[in-house]
Amino acid sequence: MSAYDSNHHTQRAERRFFTDAINAPLLTREHEHELATRWRDDDDEAALHEIVFAYSRLVISTAMRFRNYGLPVADLVQEGCIGLLQAAARFEPERNVRFSTYASWWIRAAMQDFVLRNWSIVRTGTTAAQKSLFFNFRRLRAKIGRVDGPLRREGRERIASELRVHLRDVELMEGRLSASDQSLNAPIGENGEGEWQDFIADTRPLPEETVFEHVDSMSRSAWLHEALDTLSERERIIIGKRRLRDESVTLAELGRDLGISKERVRQIEHKALEKLRALLVCRVEQPGDLIFE
């Protein structure tokens, strides 16, 4: 079967489903209660099929409300049918509520989740505030009277107040809804000689640079530890606290801890640095790279 024949067959099946769903007879409250009870208590699949088919028109009408988000209506209907089945699985007939009222929430929730997952490759509506903004922004924008162009600050503040969200959330959502996804491989200009990705600079180091830096860092660390092992215990304490910490200890503090004057600490530190420099100069071009002056 060719792609054309397959697509034509799919369209015919969709039209037939829509027609049958719209023409399906409505259920009375009593018959609806009977079907829901048979499905819940006896796992009667025939009862489930009847109640789901009778309310497929509700799925279709809800899908039409979401068709402006650029997604196929048939896909929305499929997601709505999943919500309808979830409603049938959770419906409690004894609560004296019509199934259509209960199922409406599940159908709408299933379609909203589908829209949020597929409207953009960038995840949208991850919080309740963002979800409310996404599905109400255009309606409130039209209510304000602004069909196109950016909103003024008072318009954003009005939307934020009505939906009880932060003004910053409204500004971010306005930017998201005003721009559509675009492929990084899309050509630029009339001749199409370049692509958008050509303008994205990768500031990360190259893999070989990362490896070289890692190896060099390990080597320098080993050399420094070898050099420190040649110092006396007091010299290592002074160098460690004065040169190898993010926040160095003052000469006076070290002097109090070691029981010597701060001038003596300075002299020991200077002598220890000279020892380290002499040992490292044969391996490192600039010993200051390891121990800051």
Provide a descriptive summary of the structure in words.
- This protein is mainly alpha-helical.
- The protein folds into three domains: 1-119, Four Helix Bundle (Hemerythrin (Met), subunit A); 124-179, no CATH class; 207-289, Winged helix-like DNA-binding domain superfamily/Winged helix DNA-binding domain (Arc Repressor Mutant, subunit A, Orthogonal Bundle), CATH 1.10.10.10.
- The protein has 13 helices and two strands.
- It has helices spanning 3-23, 29-42, 45-54, 56-65, 73-90, 99-118, 128-144, 153-163, 167-178, 207-228, 233-243, 251-258, 262-280, and strands at 187-188, 194-195.
- It has a two-stranded antiparallel ribbon.
- Helix 7 packs across helix 9 (167-178).
- The radius of gyration is 35 Å and the shape is elongated.
How is the secondary structure organized here?
Layout: H1 3-23, H2 29-42, H3 45-54, H4 56-65, H5 73-90, H6 99-118, H7 128-144, H8 153-163, H9 167-178, E1 187-188, E2 194-195, H10 207-228, H11 233-243, H12 251-258, H13 262-280
Antiparallel strand pairs: 1-2
